[in-house]
Design a protein that fits this description.
heterodimer; A: 300 residues; mainly alpha; ABC transporter involved in vitamin B12 uptake, BtuC; two-stranded antiparallel ribbon; globular; B: 370 residues; alpha/beta; 2 domains; seven-stranded mixed sheet; five-stranded parallel sheet; 12 helices; 15 strands
Chain lengths: 300, 370
């Protein structure tokens, strides 16, 4: 039983990690039906920014708690700037082109950003300091849940609650829902669609950067390529949950995390990825629009 | 006129034949070099030619072996087994007493049968296939550790640590999985039980599930087959979970980057790696001679080839003969100082004193475990 709890918790943490990245995919897809393949790179750039700012501050003798806060905020601001710029340069000019053009543009930006960081930083793995405070009350159960994992769970939960509240109760949330439903109609009733899209990219990038910093602190290392695999997994999670749906992305992430952890724990980690994709295929066969995806009703 | 030409030609050919015939019993000792000297893999073969020639020049400048000069005969095999048999026949035809080579395991195997039939000693600086030393070719020796040596070193070390149960993880790649499988194969003979043997996907965002599995398996140590990025993730996550079982790994982890990335968590990690010979005096001399003569740093397997040539020349010197049996005997019963340190050969043809040792991270550096 303890073994099951261990695996279940590790799956939950993994799911939270995926969820922080998958939120960005889901929101962007929900609004402009674009799969933003460069999202993983925003996650990586956020983590790198925090590393540069945080390491500079730490070497100047700033206390760890403050370093974490400042590094997190600067990572989120910088990543948001990248996200918005990405949208303006690579996606906005293609908004009325076929969806395939924007997708290719996204893949291009992903490769460009990876190589940019590779050249500007290094191709090597770089150590990532752990700025997350170590909680004393978790010391006894750190085999099941350690401070970093707890912090990731907590952050994901807070971010999810904030997002849900924002989309449900704020004016911007309402505008986002309207834009997602029908862009042209939203424009007609006076919603600034361009602004809504920019805000979506900002929110997606901010959560990705947050995830990047927490996950790199947890794993203790970073390089220019980390965004790719994390991005693909989060994308799978978003599709699993029903791409475009925010609760769906979160649910999909947890399903993926649990499948991988329990699969690796009880069967074999050789096939960890295979389990994840088998689940994806089964769910898509049964529910083609994902776990919580909206049924598309096409009028003939 | 035509008749005269034919007669002259016949005389020339006959003279040529008697001349080579004369040389056989004369004052030179011929040593062959077989390997890839052209083609894609030439960069693996040419440093061996340089090494053999440097040693030969040095010995000849000091009056040769027992007054006999060394003559180096170079033949190309392009690393292709079908060409290697021709290469071997040519070298046998030239009357060489020993061959330094070949370079690739496949080509070496093809050539070895011909050398065996002609009683020619063969010392390869680079052929690492374990099968070559299985006893089929008593004339074969090598100055490089075989592919399985690393895993054998690791298992022998685990035995001295008194481990009974270990978990083995690998990265599913050729190198990592190959190493892990050899560890798994060698473990039972050392009384060690492999309680978990699994591959993990490199680049994952979290390995806590597999670490829970290791903790749950009752393993007393974790052996990792693969490279350092995953090793540092595994070590970091293990220590964060409060696990303190030893972490053992391979040459892919014996890298300063591993220590830089894993930081304090790297302390105490064991990794096998080749014996460090760069402080050896002969090693430094060979490097300096190469730089002086060719104007660049030596290439692949240069030091192994240099050691092979020194070993062969020493064997001829000790045996006072170029007879196969005497040379083989001298090779296996004497230690010789080489670029790789003081080495000898066991009866299967593997070099003693060449190979892998275990290192441990201490205070941020890999230190050899004595």
């Amino acid at each position: 039983m303890e073994y099951f709890i261990q695996l279940f918790m590790s799956g939950t943490v993994k799911g939270s990690i995926y969820a922080l990245i998958a939120l960005g995919y889901a929101m962007v897809y929900g609004i402009i039906q674009l799969i933003n393949f460069a999202h993983g790179e925003i996650y990586m750039i956020g983590a790198f920014t925090a590393l540069i700012i945080g390491a500079t501050m730490a070497s100047a003798g700033v206390p760890t708690g403050l370093v974490l806060v400042v590094a997190l905020i600067s990572a989120m601001v910088w990543a948001a700037a990248y996200g918005v710029t990405l949208e303006k340069i690579a996606y906005k000019p293609l908004r009325n082109s076929p969806r395939l053009s924007a997708l290719i543009s996204a893949i291009g930006m992903s490769i460009f950003l990876q190589n940019y960081v590779l050249l500007a930083q290094t191709s090597n793995f770089v150590p990532y300091p752990n700025w997350v405070p170590q909680f004393a009350f978790l010391e006894d159960i750190k085999g099941i849940l350690n401070s970093n994992q707890f912090f990731i769970l907590l952050t994901t939960a807070v971010v999810m609650v904030l997002f849900t509240l924002m989309i449900r109760y704020t004016k911007m949330g309402k505008a986002m829902r309207a834009t997602a439903q029908d862009k042209a109609m939203a424009q007609l009733v006076g919603i600034n669609v361009n602004q809504v899209i920019s805000v979506t990219f900002v929110l997606g990038s901010v959560t990705a950067a947050l995830g990047g910093v927490l996950i790199c602190s947890y794993m203790g290392q970073i390089n220019y390529y980390i965004g790719f695999i994390a991005g693909i997994k989060a994308f799978v999670a978003a599709v699993l949950g029903g791409i475009g749906s925010i609760p769906g992305a979160v649910l999909g992430s947890f399903v993926l995390g649990w499948t991988e952890s329990l699969g690796a724990g009880y069967l074999s980690s050789d096939y960890e990825d295979a389990f994840a994709f088998v689940i994806l295929i089964i769910i898509l066969l049964v529910r083609p629009s994902g776990l919580l995806g909206k049924k598309e009703i096409k009028k003939v | 006129m035509k008749k005269l030409t034919v007669i002259l030609l016949t005389i020339v050919v006959a003279l040529a034949l008697t001349l080579t015939g004369c040389q056989k019993g004369s004052k030179t000792i011929k040593i062959g070099v077989g390997g890839a000297h052209t083609g894609d893999l030439a960069s693996y073969g040419l440093p061996t030619v340089n090494a053999v020639q440097l040693v030969a020049e040095e010995i000849n400048a000091n009056g040769g072996i027992d007054g006999k000069m060394i003559e180096v005969v170079v033949e190309d095999d392009q690393c292709k087994p079908e060409i290697a048999t021709n290469t071997a026949s040519k070298l046998v035809g030239e009357g060489v007493v020993a061959v330094i080579g070949h370079i690739c395991s496949g080509a070496t195997k093809a050539a070895l049968g011909i050398y065996k039939d002609s009683d020619i000693l063969t010392v390869s600086p680079s052929a690492t296939n374990p099968d070559l030393c299985d006893g089929t070719y008593p004339n074969f020796f090598r100055t490089i550790a075989s592919d399985s040596a690393q895993a054998e070193t690791e298992v022998a070390f685990m035995k001295t640590m008194g481990l009974k149960k270990v978990a083995v993880l690998h990265d599913k790649g050729d190198y990592g999985k190959g190493f892990a499988e050899l560890v798994q194969a060698n473990a039972p003979a050392a009384g060690i039980e492999v309680v978990l043997f699994e591959g993990i996907t490199p680049g994952g965002v979290d390995y806590s599930a597999i670490i829970n599995k290791v903790a749950n398996s009752g393993a007393e140590a974790l052996v990792w087959g693969g490279y350092h990025p995953e090793a540092s993730k595994l070590v970091t996550q293990m220590k964060n979970k409060g696990m303190s079982i030893p972490f053992l790994s391979d040459d892919g982890v014996k890298d300063q980057t591993f220590i830089d990335v894993a930081g304090e968590f790297a302390e105490g990690v064991y990794a096998t790696g080749p014996i460090d010979t760069s402080t050896n005096a002969l090693y430094k001399k060979a490097a300096a001679d190469h730089l002086a003569k060719y104007g660049e740093e030596p290439g692949a397997f240069f030091y192994n080839a240099y050691a092979a040539m020194l070993a062969v020349c020493n064997a001829i010197d000790k045996a006072d003969s170029t007879e196969y049996a005497a040379m083989r005997d001298a090779l296996t019963s004497n230690y010789v100082d080489t670029t790789l340190g003081s080495i000898s050969f066991d009866n299967s043809g593997e070099a003693i004193g060449v190979g892998f040792v275990v290192y441990q991270v201490k205070n941020g550096k890999y230190v050899e475990v004595k």
